[in-house]
DNA-binding transcriptional regulator MetR (Klebsiella pneumoniae), 97 residues
Amino acid sequence: MEVDFHSGVTFDPQPALQQGELDLVMTSDILPRSGLHYSPMFDFEVRLVLAPEHPLAMKTLVTPEDLAAETLLIYPVQRGRLDIWRHFLQPAGISRS
């Protein structure tokens, strides 16, 4: 068996999968493409990491509104590909510039 690993935030693996260049892809990006099937592998949970003195560190539940004024450090990808945006901020109507 030969195993090659490719990683990176700019690699778009779905076309390579469709063209037979790859056998499988592990991704959190669900992009509807003809002939591809997405199977969940596990439950994914994002954790917010805070300094102990940060005001939000005392909260038992952080809401999207709590993060509206915060600076978020994210991967340099399109906003629509970020889970924090798609599943947390956008549904709550939080707009980031």
